[in-house]
């Protein structure tokens, strides 16, 4: 059986890109019978400046989005990363075999640290080691990743191999990537060359899962496009990044191929396509938004779900951590 581990940080609202690129695929994996562990990655969130007064509420909101998006907390373990101490403990153990040269070459560190990398925090630098610990703590067999995370997963595989070689064991199975589908990279509504992001300055660049119908329609109406009509094939969209992005979003929401969408709208302009996309987006997202609102109105229920899921995660991870420490030769009472 596949064991899946994935998570998202509790930073701001989740958006359409998170749903189409991750949540929708998480639900598919869950429904296919994989053993799934989905975490709110709050330890990762503190590698950059954060608002401590908002952390707990943001954690609940992300959990609510997971459930509203289709994650079943009775089938999958839905938990909070910091509620499982093994993540931090294993990260320290693995950091003793993570090479600084490889960490320095991580593209996300370069992007987030910018030109002043010498002043960046150790947590931001060691972020990929914590990610490796997240995965290996559960001996996850597969990890859903987008293109921007493949480098981190490869490091996780290398750390697993280093551990196994150093201690002459097959303790950690190398995790395999589960490459998500064609809608993995949903781009900004204002710039088709930039990924849709929670941190983008303009709220018009993304559709949040908390947006109401009027807001969704407005954002799609204002989305950047061009004056040309839609072609009847995907190849003809080369160089038209904004047009390709809207077609990709429509296809993912409708569970159709982009080719079928283009056949449907071939020759039509965005004056016809955008209203159709807005209606589709509202019909698909409104139930998610409604369910999120219901859940957020009962924070005690969310806390109960997270507590139960975190206990389940600790049950799975504790033997792995103990075996890791035994292999490394740590003292064990009794």
Written overview of the protein:
It is built from 14 helices and 5 strands. It is mainly α. The strands form 2 sheets. The protein has a 3-stranded parallel β-sheet with strand order 1-2-3. Helix 1 links the parallel strand 1 and strand 2. Helix 4 crosses helix 8 and helix 4 packs parallel to helix 14. The longest helix is centred in the last third of the chain and has 30 residues.
Summarize the structure.
With 334 residues, this protein is mostly helical. It is 53% helix and 7% strand.
Topology:
Elements: E1 3-8, H1 16-31, E2 35-40, H2 42-45, H3 52-68, E3 77-80, H4 86-95, H5 100-104, H6 107-113, H7 122-125, H8 127-136, E4 142-145, H9 150-166, E5 176-179, H10 213-221, H11 241-254, H12 258-265, H13 270-296, H14 299-328
Parallel strand pairs: 1-2, 2-3, 4-5
Q: Strand percentage, roughly?
A: 5-15%
Task: Please give the radius of gyration in angstroms.
Answer: 21 Å
Task: Assign a percent range to the helix content.
Answer: 40-55%
Give the quaternary arrangement of the chains: single chain
- The largest sheet has its strands arranged as 1-2-3
Largest sheet: 3 strands, parallel
Q: Note the run of SSEs as H and E.
A: EHEHHEHHHHHEHEHHHHH
Shape: globular
Separation of the first and last Cα atoms: 34 Å
